[in-house]
Design goal:
mainly alpha; 2 helices; 0% strand; rod-shaped
């Protein structure tokens, strides 16, 4: 189960990527209307690259949360199995 802090961090990463990309596009269009193609291209590429980093970081964080949950579930299952095995072992020792 994800905590509120984990969900908030994921949403923050994805929203940052989207807002950064849209902001750089708007700034690039504004500069492009003035006729400065190089600066507009720099805005577009800078926003695209930076938002890609944010997006990839959010995806990696989401994978990390998934694997932490998977390890926790497997840990609970193995603990239950070991408890059953120890109970059987105690039973066998009592029998002789």
């Amino acid at each position: 189960m994800t905590t509120f802090k984990q969900r908030f961090k994921l949403a923050e990463g994805y929203l940052s990527a989207i807002l950064l990309l849209s902001g750089s596009i708007m700034a690039g269009v504004n500069v492009l209307q003035k006729g400065d193609f190089k600066t507009a291209g720099a805005f577009f590429m800078g926003g695209l690259i930076t938002s890609a980093f944010y997006f990839v970081a959010s995806v990696n964080y989401q994978k990390r949360i998934y694997y932490q949950q998977k390890r926790a579930i497997l840990g609970e299952e193995t603990t239950e199995k070991f408890a059953e095995l120890y109970a059987k072992l105690d039973e066998l020792e009592k029998r002789g």
